[in-house]
Amino acid sequence: QQLPSLEKNYSKEHEKFYQLPFLENTKEAQQKIMEAANNCKSTYEGMAGVVTNLTQMNRDMFPIDDATQFATVVQQLVIASGKGESEALSTQKLLARAFQSSIVDASTLTRIQRTAPALYEQIASAIGVSTEELQNMAKQGQLTSQQLKDAIIGSKDAAQTAFDNLDFSISDAMTNIRNQWGYFVDDINSTVGVTQTIAKGMVSAFSRL
Q: Residues 161-170: contacts with CB within 8 Å, 24+ apart?
């Protein structure tokens, strides 16, 4: 049951890419997202959902590569601060609201400060202001969504450094393997439709051990 279920989850996320008519190389984009997910201890499904949402919401500001880099930095900074993937994904949804307008809403920034203080501090640092000054910029309508995007993507080295200090657990390894295996299963199934055959073959092989 697990193998078809895993393939189904991946197919569901891949379908979202097929709905992006401007995307020239779907498989390449999926590969990049899988690698990004593995680089921040996150599931492919979660990362793909964030990237697709950003790209669909604002294609000009977030081509696939930028959306993937943005999502990676946010995941790394939030997870490195001690929070889990689900909390990081919630922060991603919150951040996405900031890009619905060219000016970042002060209330959205306040929520980011409250739920992801490490990310908030890094944004301020990247822009070159204190956390108080950052909030004042938003209140005065002086913080643009482009500045926010640039600050986060520009923090990729700081995010990677913070993330590299984390331990790599068995659970993290299993997530990584699951991502790669799911990608492989979906790829071969979309090509020749052999998921069921492989699943039965695996069961047969293990039953003889």
A: 162/76, 162/77, 162/80, 162/81, 162/118, 163/40, 163/76, 163/77, 163/79, 163/80, 165/80, 166/41, 166/79, 166/80
